[in-house]
Fold this protein.
Amino acid sequence: MLRRNFIASASATFAAPKKKPMNVLFVVSDDLTSTALGCYGHPLVQSPNVDSIAKAGVRFDRAYCQYALCAPSRASFLTGLRPDTTQVRTNGPDFRDFIPDHVTMPQLFKNNGYAAIREGKMYHMGVPGTVGTDQWQDARSWSHNGSPQGKEHNSKGEGKNLTPHIGQGVAMQYVRTPDPKEQADFDAANRAIAHLEKHRNDPFFIGLGFVRPHVPFVAPNEYFDRYPLSKIKLAQNPANDLDDIPPIAMATMPNTSYNMKMNEDQQMEALRAYYAAISFMDDQLGRVLKALDALGLRDNTVVVFQSDHGWHLGEHTFWQKRSLMEESAKVPLIISAPGQKARGQVSRSLVELVDVYPTLAGLCGLTPPANLHGKTLQPLLDNPRKKHKDVALTQLNTPKLDARAARTDNFRYIRWKSGDEVAEELYDHRKDPREFTNVAAKPEYAGALKSHRALIG
């Protein structure tokens, strides 16, 4: 045999083994604001496991949802399409009624041989009403479609409703329970760990949806004890903060503005319960991450942590979501991927949740649908200072209202439109990062107002 033929034959015989497919652990926490996490700078909240993902990956400080409500946001980032295309603009419709053949993010992985596993809230799930059911969870997206069980407000323990004039699912209600095992997030973590063990040698996409810190705030006593009321600080707002917010904007939040009629003591109780729910969720995440490491899977698994939208904690006297201001539109988003060059770094680039789908597809070498509205974040995982987008868009809609927000490097613009009524807000983040002063009517901002109008059409 000629020498060159022998070498070629040997090379073929001892070819490098085929690279293992990259796994995905995709974690979504419900109703979580980035301002209430340790890695985002909160001085009190204990979230060591979320923080550990940030230390291993890139934390996005200006990530925005496309709709500040559960079902529309989740339908958007799981399809990679904006709400005007999914046509999900309330908590109720099924995106399949409008785009029946679209391949969702988990479905792409399932179609490419992955075990596509759901445990917990991925698509919309009414909390507390439909926790433990598979309503709206889109069976076509998953090879395993799991709904962890939880007792929610019926959990044993000391409970309190701080806003009895408001219905469940919105009411600021909490339960200090002695038994974590009654909670859906505890069950979800157990199930996720079992899937990791079962599929350690198979490619997997695990969608792990925690319902906390969504109301009702249910957590074991020890988590409440971490946050003495004496250490809780309320949001500080100027006395005239609401004077320049259009009435049409205030009308979208009839139950969640003016501090939901809570006095200061009740607001501190609500904050303590919210923080307790976050720390409880974080500990469940920690159990899953520990299993990922113990099984030797971290080096081959992309880990994403995010929420579906932001949440007000008394800023502008608002609580919860469904505003178009910074606290409601901005979300926590952290990505840790094997092989990325940037670790423990922060990106200030404008990014959107529709960017997550093409990012995960790209990291795992899959080809996503061509009609996605997002843009891969992969370059930012190597260079977080790289510019990504000029604008991030968020919207709110009802049959009689079209509301749009555009976040650019220096401004937030909001347009409210109902019939012939149009109202505008413009905030200069260079001078006013907490959006206390609406400058839309000031002559010196006429140019900025015009350019931002063009961004939303």
The domain at 21-389 is CATH 3.40.720.10 (Alkaline Phosphatase, subunit A). The longest strand covers residues 411-418. The chain has one domain: 21-389. The longest helix spans residues 264-294.
